Amino acid sequence: MSSHEFGLVFAANERFAPPLAVAMHSALSTLEAHCRPAIYVLDNGLSEPSRRRLSVVVTRVAPGEVIRFIRVPPTRLAGIRLPNDLPAATLSRLLIPELLDPGITRVVYLDADVLVRRDLSALFRIELGDTIVAAARDFEYRSFDPESLELSRSETEYSRPYYNAGVLVIEVPRWRDAGMTDRALERARRQFMPWADQDALNATVQRWTTLDDRWNVQTRSIGLAKRRLLTDRGRYLHERELYRSGAVWHFVGLQGKPWEPRCQILGTVHWAVAFARCGWHPPLKAFRWMSDWLARRVLAWPAIAVRRWKARASAIGRTVASIRARGRAGQAG
Q: Taking the mean position of all CA atoms in its chain, how far away is CA 329?
């Protein structure tokens, strides 16, 4: 594969520079030897020291490769209102096709909060038919109304399936020909979107290629699935199997990221080990970081255990109430 045809793209601001190192290192270290796409980072305010560190991470795992840092023009994203907890960097993925080199035809985009577990090269070869974008379904929200942007956990409540934008495959020439960047940005300026560019993409792109769930395993949602273990055991077991075999773990959500020692999302410890190994810190400092992270995690454990038991008790209570309600409805019928 030629680096002049394919691009592996990330986006981050300064806050997400350390997790970006994990995403980049894990993606490149699992990639087939003959698959060497051009590496891009959409720079939403990275410091020069962070850029140097990220370059070291890439050089360690892929000698000879360089990162192409692209400054994101803030004026291009002006006039879009974001939820308080979402950084403007999340919008920059809408600009990917217009910011990359003209020769790039296929892009695989990864959020900074992912850990790649298996080779991504198949995504550069996947057939998109006549669609522009490929993505996996969102684990929590399964359908949505493209006009109101109301989301539903039901597969069938609304007319369109809802996709998670943390892992994207983009056919760049088709995107440019369809003017997707301008259309998505205009929609985001016209209507407030709780999930920003993810909502804008879902509302603007009418036809998608659906990726297998293993390409975007949203680990927080699997943890939440424990609450429906008694009522939807099949789905829970399916998602647990996805966790074991998935190619990309995606730590979705605005809260509870794996670099926080109190985080209880599946895969948190794996992420911390990957961070210690990725080269963001030199070996001694990485060892100290890991030791401190584990120590703070142990100290937080009592509070975590109490919160976990309360959540389980609440889930059991809801399940019992649901079973009783169905029993009363059956008797009434």
A: 41
310, burial (CB in 10 Å: exposed 0-12, middle 13-18, buried 19+)? exposed
Q: Is residue 98 domain-resident?
A: yes
Phi first, then psi, for residue 291 (nearest 5°) are: -65, -45
- The answer to whether residue 305 is domain-embedded is no
Q: Does 266 reside within a domain?
A: yes
- Residue 209 counted as domain residue: yes
**Per-residue pLDDT tens over the stretch 178-233:** 999 999 999 989 888 888 889 999 999 989 999 999 999 998 877 665 555 555 67
Strand bridging mode 208-210 / 167-171: unpaired
Q: Say which CATH number the domain at 137 has.
A: 3.90.550.10
pTM over 0.85: yes
Q: Report the phi/psi class of residue 192: left, alpha or beta, with left for phi > 0 and alpha for psi in -120 to 50.
A: beta
